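Shift notes (night). Ran Peptidase while the centrifuge was going.
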Amino acid sequence: MKKRNLISLLSAGACALAFAMPVHAEDYSNTDAWVARCSQPQSSADGVKACQAFQDYQQQRYDQLQEDIKQYSKDIASLEEDTDKMEQLAKTQKELQEQLEGQIQEKESAIQKIEEEIKALEQKIQEKQEEIDAWDEQIKSRMQNEQSSTGTNMLIDLVMGSQDLNDMLRRLSGIERITEDDQHQIEQLNELKEQLDLQKSEQVRLEEETKSQQDQLKSQQQQAKELEESYNQLVEQYEQQMAQLQAAKRAAFNDIESIRSNMISVSYSGTLVNVAGFVSPITGGRMSAGTWAYPGGGLHLGMDYAVPIGTQVVAPADGVILYANNPAPSNGGYLGNWTGYPYGGGNTIEMVCMVNGTTYAVSFAHLSREGFAVSAGQSVSQGQAIALTGNSGNSSGPHCHIEVYNLGNMSLEEAVSRFSSSADFAWGTGWNSTATACENGYSTPCRERPEKFFG
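Came back to this:
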């Protein structure tokens, strides 16, 4: 017990000295590499010092994020019907959420690695201690043999009177009569002891680091939940204003030439194949918002499928693509992100088709950039993959927004000509009213509820 206490004291002293040394600036941009490196036992004082500096850096990141989240919560609490502020807060929330999720993933990975390393280190410490104990007995045994052969009591009495291994090593090092072989063994024993000291101190460091990571992880998981709840409140407030914002921005658009390369050509010639009914463009998921209103209020002119990013979208009928463009990142959506056409749609597709003798236009918004499988002027078959769902443009989370327009008996030629001249995804029905809904008796083109066809 005395030996173990002494070694622990020496280890603590060595660690304190190492940590007191000045820490040099390091590049921590590759955080994953540093997490992996410092989740392992260090074999030198320099390694311990470098990992302590990285832990300090991680703590600074953690503390800064806490302050940012606190400020965000204060801003949410004071929010009124200021859409500019809503959009800015939504962007801030997305950045905070990404940072928080990144730190949570780092901690989960680090905790797993550290726990694995501690188990391996415990075995190494046990083996090292057994090796040192064997050397201890070997040296003492040889000293006893020397006493028997030489009859000299001074050396063996001096050694055997040692209180512990460290005391014995100190006494042996000061004896001039020690042989060269003895000296070599003592040096090797000293090296083993130093390695053991470092391994034990690293075990303590890793155990303390695991506890710290677990405490922070629990706190951040709770923060992520609270951040999501506050964001949902923000979304609900924003959705009540969004229809007016969209209507104003989309009505002001007049630069058709800027999107011409993604539109069907007016010279397109072809035919529409009439099919007996629609198929659902998305399998699975749930309807997170229906037509004509969001759950919390606010005009909503289509149906939202809440599905994970990367879910396949298929053509609901045989048809022709009128518009297709994917300028936005797949998961870059946030409130107030007006990327895409129509404004805020992110990555979008508009197609025309014929079902049971009626011509329809169907539009898809907030798609992924990846997996975009169609282009303007392309014919598609019912059930053919056309895109993947995403979270692009003016979007509060992963989903696909779908709108359906009843074009009556409009021919394909007329539909292509009309769309090419106006680029109007809404087909004259506007963006700020339910008055142009087919169910209200409005003449074609009129808006249909996608739920009527897709469930």
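Residues 1-24 have pLDDT under 50 and may be disordered. Residues 2-234 form one domain.
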